[in-house]
Amino acid sequence: METVYWTMKNGQKIDVDTMDLNHLRNTLKMLIKAKRAQSAPKSFKMNGEIAQDHIDQGYLNEQEEEFDEWYGI
Question: In which domain, by residue range, is 28 found?
């Protein structure tokens, strides 16, 4: 079977078959959140260019993922 690699946030590529269970869970959650974000309406509007830029660039989603990883969600 073909080896499939996952690219982590730091750019390191790892073999999916060697990922531990918690890493696989977090990866799946991230993919589900990304899919939801793609299909969600973009009606959320922040006041201020910097705040809106954080929403548009997904910065807040990254912070949520770090929170989830920290607390093992």
Answer: 5-71
pLDDT in tens, 34-45: 887 776 666 666
Percent of the chain with pLDDT over 90: 26
- Tokens coding 35: 């899919």
When divided into structural domains, the chain yields a total of 1
| Sign of torsion over alpha carbons 64, 66, 70, 73 | positive
Q: Which one, of 37, 41, 40, lies nearest residue 57 by Cα?
A: 37
Model-level pTM greater than 0.70? no
Output the CA torsion sign for 12, 18, 23, 24.
Answer: positive
* Structure tokens that stand for 21 in this block: 């269970």
